Amino acid sequence: MKISEIFYEKNAAGKPVVSFEVFPPKTDSGTQTIYQTVSGLIKQPDFISVTYRGDSGDKTSEIAENIKRQMGTEVLHHLTAAGLTLSELTNILSELTNARIENILALRGDAASLSGDFPLAKDLIKAVKSDGHFNVAGACYPEGHVSSPLDTENLDHLRQKAESGADFFISQLFFDNAQFFRMNEAAKDAGISQPISAGVMPIMSVANVERLIFFGASIPTRLIKIINKYKDSPEDLRQAGLEYAFHQLDDLIAHGVDGVHVYTMNRASVANAVMKRYL
Ligand code: FAD
User: Fold this and answer.
1) Which DSSP letter does residue 215 get?
2) Is 109 left (phi over 0), alpha (psi -120 to 50) or beta?
3) Rounded to whole angstroms, how far apart are CA atoms 231 and 119?
4) What does the alpha-carbon distance between residue 170 and residue 180 come to, in Å, rounded to a whole number?
5) Structural domain containing residue 205
6) What pLDDT is stored for residue 149 in this prediction?
7) CA–CA separation, 121 and 139 (whole Å)
8) Which of 17, 21, 189, 231 could disulfide-pair with 259, CB 3.0 to 4.6 Å?
9) C-alpha to C-alpha distance for 256 and 11, rounded to whole angstroms
10) pLDDT tens-digit profile of 96-149?
């Protein structure tokens, strides 16, 4: 099923689309854990997105295909443009069509130094869209992309992705909902009518937070205090991180967002806690 149809149906019923993100683990046992997590969920989310590294060992397609075939859950296959040629893209799209994958999140990727036929995400969005088989999503940035923090540029880049054919958007993670509401409103005011899903990641560890500064997500004082309070107690920090994420999700849903996209970090406990709360 095309994910824009899911947005249409759920939003018309006044409900947000709930999605999870998983990443392909490096080991086979890690991959099995993903399947166990997904099949063990008390309820399936509206779709599951699977991230992409783009190297030879990448298991994105295999995992996305298995989740869709075995669990019957809709999937969003991430794909990056960095270093990708047109003929490689043609082959990938044909394999994904054969695997009955219908939705692609088209990204530039972070290895921007690799030359390819698609310099920016909008170029990949246009190419995937013109294939005719796929719903195409794009990424958006409530606090601006780390390399381009100007608000005006941020909105302009979002508009270009929309005009290139993006059917919906998924946001970078953020911890301050006001940042998302501001971008969401600016996008709607600018005539961008495609649904935008809000990206939320429960904090799971101090190391986790340290890595997040590279995504450009600002950390509100309330969250810093939580991290400081529980920094020597990993289990308490995980619980407090999940509760903070629930506050964010409750508030986003109360504000009528189109969707919430939870970065579950392949953790069954997080995925199940979210589904229990938002059944
Ligand atoms: P673009 O929109 O092309 O932006 C790239 C840079 O160019 C930005 O600095 C932007 O401001 C600038 N820019 C955009 N348009 C223009 C223009 N017209 N003129 C000049 N500059 C412009 N990475 C992975 O490798 N694998 C994944 O699976 C993955 N999943 C992601 C999922 C989500 C929801 C998000 C938010 C990010 C994900 N990323 C992933 C990271 C992503 O690849 C990086 O954020 C990357 O740096 C930018 O990707 P983009 O698609 O937004 O690129």
Assistant:
1) G
2) left
3) 41
4) 11
5) 3-278
6) 66
7) 9
8) 17
9) 9
10) 999 999 999 999 998 867 789 999 999 999 999 999 999 999 999 999 998 886
Cα 224 to ligand 1 centre (Å)? 27
Q: Ligand 1 centre and the CA of 159: distance in Å?
A: 14
Q: Which residue puts its alpha carbon closest to atom 16 of ligand 1? A: 157
Determine the pLDDT at residue 215.
84
Residue 23 alpha carbon, nearest atom of ligand 1: 28
**107 C-alpha vs ligand 1 centroid, how far in Å?**
5
Is 51 near ligand 1, meaning CB less than 6 Å away?
A: yes
Q: Is 107 in the pocket of ligand 1 (CB under 6 A)?
A: yes
- CATH number of the domain that 249 lies in? 3.20.20.220
Atom of ligand 1 nearest to the CA of 54: 25
* Ligand 1 pocket check for 215: Cβ under 6 Å: no
pLDDT at site 89? 98
For residue 161, what are the contacts with CB-CB under 8 A and spacing of at least 6?
121, 122, 125, 138, 140, 169
Residue nearest to atom 17 of ligand 1 (CA): 157
Mean pLDDT of all residues in the chain?
95
67-88 pLDDT tens trace: 999 999 999 999 999 999 999 9
143-172: average pLDDT: 92
The tally of domains found in the chain comes to 1
CB of 223 within 8 A of CB of 175?
yes
Query: Which residues carry out catalysis?
Result: 21
